[in-house]
Amino acid sequence: MHPAFSVVFFTTATGAGYGLLALLGLLGGFGVIPADFWLGLVGMALALGLIVAGLLSSTGHLGRPERAWRAFSQWRSSWLSREGVASVATFIPAGLFSIGWVFLGRSGGWVAVAGLLTAAGAVVTICTTGMIYASLKPIAQWHSRYTLPAYLIFSAMTGSVLGNAVLQEFKLGSTAMLTWALLATLAGWGWKLATWRYNDRLEIPTTANTATGLVGGTVRSIEWPHTEENYLLKEMGFRIARKHSAKLRQITQALAFAAPAVLLATVFVLPSPLGAIASVLAAIAQLAGMLVERWLFFAEAKHTIRLYYGLE
Fold first, then answer.
1. What is the number of domains present in the chain?
2. Entry pTM
3. Fewest CB atoms within 10 A around its CB: which of 36, 96, 109, 291?
């Protein structure tokens, strides 16, 4: 699949944003972290800023961005539409939570309820995003048991690392938060390795023979259906060299998982100013690595329409 940067940025930014939003909704709403004005303002601005930036970026991949609003009407049958509805609906409890926790300095009671609904809305939105890809049967690399959990794990991972960085900057970091961010990073690393292993061993049952129903001999394309590149080839005929894929996988592991894990581990023993710097660097490295991971997620996917053009 063609890895358009607008969609790559969208999935990375909204995943981190909703992960952080869910974390703040739970911890802030139930008083685990204090109702400090500047902490709340920075944390919520970062979470909502990433979400809004990601959603706006996603419209750049549309042929007619001004018609994006029409996607909301297909929520009965489209995961893309359900994602749009869920993302907008989540802003309602998030707004109420922001008023109570950030501006009124309160937690518990209705603020806790709003925080809980915010976290639930964030999780539902991430699930709908993951299902957009997991529901696509023509793309075997996505239509697997690994896709939806990956979206949830990566959202929790990036949101936790961002949350830890914000808390460390405000000198409110805790061993529990730091441990959770580190474990989430290691879990994301393990899940990514398992996904790559599954995809590398994946045997796609559909071939030119099965598609045409001709079981005898080998069906091959003599010439392409047309001489110029069209939308299908541009979007679904993208190919990445195996050596480039291997190198980008190494970069992903280094930036998204290994570097953040090492930096987070050092925070346990570093004094406050250095620990805060290490936490911020971990968040920056991880987001950069996840951009590479998301690019690979699209670039390595193969749509069965490629068989029509004689592509493997």
1. 1
2. 0.90
3. 109
